[in-house]
Amino acid sequence: MKFHNYFEGLFNKRKVSRQFIILFLTVFFIPLLFISIWFLYDSQKLLTNHYKEQSDSDNLRIRSILFDITTNALNLSEYFASDTELLQLLNTTYDSKISAQVAMNSYKNRENALRRDTSISSIKVFSFNDSLNNNNDFYYLDSNYQNTDWFKKASTTHSGYWYVEETMDDGGTISLSLVLYKKVMLVESHSYAILSLTISNNYLKNRIHNNTLNSMLCVNDSPVFYSSEKNYLGLSLPMKENFFPTHFTYSGLLEIDNKQTIGTVSTLLPYKTDDFLYIVTYSPNALPEIKNIQQSYIVTIGLLLLFLMLLFFVFSKYFSNRVVALKTSMWQASHGHYEMIEQFSGNDEFYEIFHDLKIMINEIKKKEALLYQNQLKKQQLETQQQQMEFKMLASQINPHFLYNALETIRMKAFTNGDREVATAIKLLGKSLRYVLDNTGTVSTSLAKEIEHIRTYICIQKLRFGARVNYEEHIDPDIHLEDYKILPLLLQPIVENAICHGLENSDEHEGKILLSILKEEDCLCIEVSDNGIGMTKEQLSSLQEKMMKKNLSLTQSIGLYNINQRIRLCYGDNYSLHISSQLGKGTTVRLALPLLQLQTTTNGLYEINMK
């Protein structure tokens, strides 16, 4: 209650223009501003998640590729480590370079493996067998090799390890490559050899390259050996975060080379090794694209708010000016100044009020003239006053005036494109005409009464929509035009079924059924609904009220009137009967004589047997 009073005071104590401003701020501007802020926040969150998911997906794809490549390389190294031909070649001491060359040339497994597997660019063997020439990728482990980092680690590691080293292709281009080193034990010669498998950079590029996302790869704390941006090759990962030497997974904002971006960092543990292979995928254009999208959203929302403010300002100014013009005209009229403006813009309710005000002022001017004349004729004052009041009362109840007024309103609604309102007014006029035409009459045709019920149902459907459904079951032997009943007998029953029976029904569930049939010498009319129904106590109370008139009651008076009219017209043998069941609905049954009523010239009626 306090809130209601506060809300009314917020508007009632201010002028219309300020009321519009308050209404605009509370109903449009502030809610739309909050919605816009939420939308911007949510859209940024969605875009960020989109780029994160995109980066995660690409990172997972590269992890899968690298796992296949490294696992395949390790399996291939284990194959050569147990290859009897290779072990025999390495264990044999050759007495001449020619015999060693012949033995190496006859060994084809290495060449066959390179032809079959495009992911491997080279396979080299390093051993302490000095009888093997440095040819066909067989190398003698002299002091230069033994001082290298890769040899020191490979000689102490039996499971193999991954290393990044500089390689040179056939064109003389130097690049970084990922190399697997594997120690091969030579039992017969009590020695060992080192096997190296180099991963093809072209193969990596063809499998990993993505046009929209960038990626970088490094192993352990070695420099980057693969990067979509070549300027990062040979450098450490250009990120402030230190991931080494742990198993790490991260997805979100990254700072690469002092630039913010969205990406994913994950760690792959190659098969049967203790190395860490770090995979970085990121979208260099993610944050600029998000920023551009957000800016476009902000500009669009700003233009929308500006347009709404401008539109609301123009409308409030237009509305306020019309209110002021109407207020000024009424103030002038209240002070006896009847010279009003002739033009008033618009064609809405304000224009109608202004038009009615002009009519009222003209009427007042006429009345003042009449009063001035009546002062000269005191003898005729009372008579003229009574005539004027009679004319005013007559104009209020004149059916033609009502029909014309309704038709004018209907045409205005139709002209304005509001067909639903035009249809509603048309139905109302049709119903009103039937009521006025049958006021004071003693009979009407059953066809006209049923048509009136259909019109009434159409009006109610405008209000309740699909909650009110109507069906008719009429005996095909009954011709509605041949039978007449008391007018306005069925409409109150149908109204009662809708207002009380279907008041709590859900959409598409309410149903009114009108049944008309012959039973012996009676015309039986039933109005049924599938509404809430009544308990036995409620039904008993209603039947008691229906039989006894009580002016203090506002409900069930319609049923009382119907019952009384039936008894007075047809006799005590005919009346209405009500049956109801809680939760299943109510049925009102009228038992009328199967008669034809004909109105006589003196307004009474006579009954003829059908």
TrEMBL record:
Signal peptide: none annotated. The chain crosses the membrane at residues 20-41, 297-320. Keywords: Kinase, Membrane, Transferase, Transmembrane, Transmembrane helix, Two-component regulatory system. Residues 490-596 form the Histidine kinase domain. GO terms for molecular function: phosphorelay sensor kinase activity. This is Sensor histidine kinase. It comes from Candidatus Scybalomonas excrementavium. GO terms for cellular component: membrane. It comes from the Bacteria. Pfam families: HATPase_c, His_kinase. Coiled coil: none annotated. InterPro entries: Bact_2-comp_sensor_kinase, HATPase_C_sf, HATPase_dom, His_kinase_dom, Sig_transdc_His_kin_internal.
